[in-house]
Amino acid sequence: MAGRLEGKIAVITGGASGIGKASAIRFAQEGADIVIADLNPERSEEAAAEVRALGRRALAVPTDTSSHAACEALAAKAVEAFGRIDILVAAAGISHALYVSGSAPSDVRGEREAALLINKPIEYWEKVLNVNLTGVMLTNRAVARAMVAAGTRGSIINIASGAAKIPIVGAADYCVSKAGVWMLTKVLAAELASRGIRVNAIGPGFIETPMTASVRANEERRRAIELSTPLGRLGQPEDIANTALFLASDESSFFTGEILFPDGGLFTG
Description:
The protein is of the alpha/beta class. The protein has one domain: NAD(P)-binding Rossmann-like Domain (Rossmann fold, 3-Layer(aba) Sandwich). 45% of the residues lie in helices and 12% in strands. It has nine helices and seven strands; from the N terminus they run E-H-E-H-E-H-E-H-H-E-H-E-H-H-H-E. It has helices at 18-29, 41-53, 68-82, 112-115, 122-150, 172-192, 213-216, 219-228, 237-248; strands at 9-13, 33-38, 58-62, 87-90, 155-159, 198-202, 259-260. Strands 3-2-1-4-5-6-7 form a seven-stranded parallel β-sheet, sandwiched between helices. Helix 2 links the parallel strand 2 (33-38) and strand 3 (58-62).
């Protein structure tokens, strides 16, 4: 029985870890060939190897999504290798300016006073917006151009956050960047609908990924999050990957400009 993405080509940014990697593996299980785009070359190759072990083709492309040239090169390499791009999952992102994926857990936002907008260095704000918002825009634009050139009726999926609608003290840059991704998704959906390209977003709740390691390391804080989540648990990367699979597949063919919130009921109301 063919998978839901059989023969599709998917580009996944942030594909070496967390939600991005889970999406790469899930898509490969459903028949897609995968382009892993990530800052970390070693872990990108490891993720690509896991995709190949599932019997699918994979290409690792080291990519800084905040760079216009890098995003254009990513799209070009994907088309060169596989002929076209059918799906984009824009999962690359940071929780704060000093975050480095794969590094030892840190909790910069835990310094409450320093993290307030009135005290935060402007370069921190710029870094988060460059990666989380401009990076998503650049990736979307590069891939959308490739889709339009090939006449592909594709699906673009942007990873936003529940923080797009819930203010978090000490995380103004993160919240604003994710709210921007939500609006970017809606605007691009309107602009690309006539080309048959769908653009949707996902706003995860609290998910067990490397980005949340520092918070989860504090048992009291972890328990508080679990208690405040109606379903009583933290989300898994696979929960978001399954949501992305729905949006990538023909099952969501009448969805565009939407955002889905897999958050265990955390942001209900």
